[in-house]
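Good morning C.,

I know you're traveling, so I'll keep this short. The sequence:
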Amino acid sequence: MNEQDKILILDFGGQTTALIGRRIRETGVYTEIIPGDTPLSDKILDGVKGIILSGSPESVYAAGAIPDKRIYNSEIPLLGICYGLQRIMTDLGGKVVPLPKMEYGGVEIFMNLKTIKRLSKFNKAAQRFLSGFTKRKIFELRHFFSEQSKFPAFTAWMSHGDTLSELAPGFIETGTSATGFPALICHEEKPWFGLQFHPEVSHCEFGSSILASFVLDVCGCAQNWTMEKYLEKIPAQLRKQANGKPLLLLISGGVDSTVTAALLLKALPPEQVHLMYIDTGLMRSGETEEVTTILNRFGVKNLHILHCENEFLAALKNHESPEEKRKIIGDLFISIQEREVDRLKLPEDYFLVQGTLYTDLIESGKGIGKKAHLIKSHHNVGSPLVEAKRAAGKIIEPLGELYKDEARALGRLLSLDESLVGRHPFPGPGLAVRILGEVTHEKCAILREADAVFINELKRRRNPVTNKTLYEEIWQAFAVLLPVRSVGIAGDGRKYGWVLTLRAITSADGMTADVYPFNIKDITEISTLITNTVPQIGRVCLDISSKPPATIEWE
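The tokens, ready to paste straight into the viewer:
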């Protein structure tokens, strides 16, 4: 029998499915994510204290995954989120219809006080769920003595184009969106609940508390899961997967691949692990030298540094499409790796290891199930050669269930330096996806120098209130070279220079992001320094787009 309480998440392809799991793990409860239409055997349900149905890019009235009906015949508490709620309603006799206008972004939720009081009297699970809200100060106590039947309680985060036109029998609407549509649903008798918003997204006010109310108050889960326990179980899994075979990790020097390298060297004999660093010519300033120094500290037995700038730039010539560039780079990575494998005489049954995060997989349409939509191909996920290796079972991705901040936490447990663990994310395709349009040696040199000025200034400047460097306060910052020139003045002459855009965001996990609020003095001084230092840059812009609707990277 399973000794650990767990929450089971049925994945219907939502972009934030694993984020639900991550929020729950923050409460100290183990979560497991499986495809939404998985038959629920006794083995799968062993230790399960609650089931969550995730969101989805699909509509319930279109052909799609349907959960095992066993969930409705058990006593296990259910929570439907967005599509998950609509799925429950449809399965149990309710109706879902398209909205005249999509509900998206921050929307105020109004709670029905009279309904909540009446429901709480005869449904103990609902009482625990809703009192959990009050206990965590989502509702002010004065509302419970108010004569208003409805009151604004919090701002939720929505992203859906369908709504409930008719509730399934036995369900009651306890919360309504400011636009007048059902937002919070409870069953009159059973521990079944539904949210027409996304509590897992950081923009949702009190979202983590809402999930905690379900997991802790309704499901009664023990809080006995930590990242330390994750680190305890991963080495055994790696040894089982590797089965004594050689492993080859393509390492970039970024947080994800470096944490993966440290994990491999902790779990396996160093002779079994090969680390290959490919200098594509698309790296940041000083990257190759810094990576070599870091990796040598690990006591690596097999470290292979390859200089392949000419190959990558030649392959990218005349290509401007972001998807084409990503796939060209991904394929070339694997081709070079295969060439080097032959040279190193590794056996055919070696495993390719990647530092892929769940965000990489889900954005590339590779969620736990088969319903995730493609947002963009990641070079180590979407390329045909990587796909072939994945299909052959020759890829190991130890961080595939984790988000960036969790990978960082794991790195700290592995005793990696904070200067490395705290590095800003850097895309596998490197500067190729930060140079819009065709990639050339000249553009790489310009962007590399400008980006270095930007990052060095962020590390040098401090916020006088927090005393942190701007680099520490920002989750990710980088420069983007646009495929346009702008007129300017150099001395007394007219000059055309490239346009550079600066991007700096704050985030917890990379799934959503806000713009970093620069002091105007800092950003104007940084802009001036860039144009004075890099003469090819004629104009500097600042990207102030949040995610969503924009992605963090431009390509």
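Safe travels,
E.
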